From TrEMBL:
<keyword id="KW-0735">Signal-anchor</keyword>
<keyword id="KW-0333">Golgi apparatus</keyword>
<keyword id="KW-0472">Membrane</keyword>
<dbReference type="GO" id="GO:0015018">
    <property type="term" value="F:galactosylgalactosylxylosylprotein 3-beta-glucuronosyltransferase activity"/>
</dbReference>
<dbReference type="GO" id="GO:0046872">
    <property type="term" value="F:metal ion binding"/>
</dbReference>
<keyword id="KW-0325">Glycoprotein</keyword>
<comment type="pathway">
    <text>Protein modification; protein glycosylation.</text>
</comment>
<protein>
    <recommendedName>
        <fullName>Galactosylgalactosylxylosylprotein 3-beta-glucuronosyltransferase</fullName>
        <ecNumber>2.4.1.135</ecNumber>
    </recommendedName>
</protein>
<keyword id="KW-0812">Transmembrane</keyword>
<dbReference type="GO" id="GO:0000139">
    <property type="term" value="C:Golgi membrane"/>
</dbReference>
<comment type="similarity">
    <text>Belongs to the glycosyltransferase 43 family.</text>
</comment>
<keyword id="KW-0328">Glycosyltransferase</keyword>
<dbReference type="GO" id="GO:0005975">
    <property type="term" value="P:carbohydrate metabolic process"/>
</dbReference>
<dbReference type="GO" id="GO:0050650">
    <property type="term" value="P:chondroitin sulfate proteoglycan biosynthetic process"/>
</dbReference>
<feature type="binding site">
    <location>
        <position position="134"/>
    </location>
    <ligand>
        <name>Mn(2+)</name>
    </ligand>
</feature>
<dbReference type="InterPro" id="IPR029044">
    <property type="entry name" value="Nucleotide-diphossugar_trans"/>
</dbReference>
<keyword id="KW-1133">Transmembrane helix</keyword>
Amino acid sequence: MGFFLLTDVLHYDNGGRISCTKREEQNQHLPIIYVITPTYKRLTQIPELTRLGNTLRNVPAVHWIVVEEGKRTLEAVRHLLMKIDIQFTYLSATRYKNVPRTLKGIHQRNKAIFWLRENIDMSKDGVVYFADDDNTYDLEIFIEMRYTKKISVWPVGFVSEKKYQTPILENGKVIKFDAWNTKQRKFPIDMAGFALNTKTFYFNDDLYFWKSFQEGYQETSFLEICCTLNDLEPKANGCTKVLVWHTKTKDPLVYFASYNDPDSDTE
């Protein structure tokens, strides 16, 4: 794509334009990984985005699409993205009306998908990955997903009171999952546990997060639009390695309140 030939350092936001650096010149042969991250204003927002950003700055040929919840982007987040100095797009998205708050993030992920459909050639190989800002990612996971043909999958640590949840393989193919609620979900997989080739969106015009999706069924409802069990490509050494974890940060105010409470067990 032409924008990878730019040598100037350009930082744009909210208008959907692209940040480019000289590093992209060296990585033109690699499929681009488009990392989509919903975020919202809170005390831990900048620390968590910093952690994810410092991970992504070590990933070649990556484009970080950060989508703020609300009517506008935030100067603090914009400043952080420019300081991290990787290719990025910073957008904002307001919450859908008459959609439960528990169905979180769908408006932001859809905003990023809309942007991709309008701004890149999705008929060419690339990778789309939904990476929440409160997770922890081993750099190896980005190597694993780089050459996804359609949909790649792997284990995710610390999900729903489980040490990890994972696809289960037989003869190198995914046959079922070790996860919560496997009976009612065709794809009982976490949002951090799969990545898609951009062509999957190109061949499925209705591949979005629909407002009608049921709470707790976002991932399976989304994947049911575009794939079958046979399409899944197991990564991470046959789904035996955990390379991404849910590591949610405590609200600092809750911690400080407990710390100052003489009757608290917090040390």
